[in-house]
Amino acid sequence: MNPLRDALAAEVDFPRLRERSAIKLLLGATRVRDGSLRILTNPELTVDAVLASACLPLLHHAIELDREPYWDGGYAANPPLIPLVHASETSHILIVQVTPNMSNRLPKTTSEIAARIEQIQFNATLNTELEALKYGKIIGAADKLRRLRIGRISADDHFEGFAAESAANIRWDFLERLHLGGRAAAEAWLNQNLPAMRRSA
Asked: Is the pLDDT of residue 19 over 80?
């Protein structure tokens, strides 16, 4: 059972998204067989494509696409920044980081350790791609990279104990705190960066 499947099927018009969307979408999925990243674009978007891109193997069965099982794209790229830069003409990228960076307490139980390992793995793929883009900017690999500006919003500094929370926590009080923490992080980023962005526009 995957209740997300029914919710997606009920709420998203996938044929319209594939054929007439003005917004270019990129979803990442990790092929289980060899750990490689697959980028799914608008013509490939289906319920299964979305489920594959968000499939956590300890919670859900792998999702098959073209007879290959896939897991969450975050295991291979979180998010796939280099394909995003390649596919886009924008000179500004804003990352909204939902996986906590920092944890102030040592995980001790099996579930706590597994959760922290997953956080570290997901952030490692993000940091690797960020470093690759920064290096590309330094060596002037392309005009697009020289112009590129990357921002990052993270709720780490605005949500006490964020790293200790379970991704499966759907309690309303937690969701409210998450919402408030996200807004605070976004407002702090805008206050710090918006004046410079306006000057460079």
From this structure: yes
- How far apart are alpha carbons 57 and 88 in whole angstroms? 31
pLDDT at 1: 65
Backbone conformation region of residue 140, classed left if phi is above 0, alpha if psi is from -120 to 50, else beta: left
Tally of residues, the chain: 201
pTM: 0.75
Question: In one letter, which amino acid is 117?
Answer: I
Tokens of 78: 């979180």
Most confident of 43-57, 108-122, 169-183, 185-199: 43-57
Dihedrals φ, ψ of 164, to 5°? -85, -10
Query: Per-residue b/e over 84-122, b at no fewer than 16 CB within 10 Å?
Result: bbeeeeeeebebebebbbebeeebeeeebeebbebbeeb
- The token duo for 105 is 């307490």
Q: How many Cα neighbours within 13 Å face the side chain of 128?
A: 13
pLDDT at 15: 93
Identity of residue 170: I
Q: What is the 3-state secondary structure (H, E, C) of 63-119?
A: EEECCEEEEEHHHCCCCCHHHHHHHCCCCEEEEEECCCCCCCCCCCCHHHHHHHHHH
Residues ≥6 apart with Cβ < 8 Å to 200: 149
**Cis check: omega of the bond before 195, within 30 degrees of 0:** no
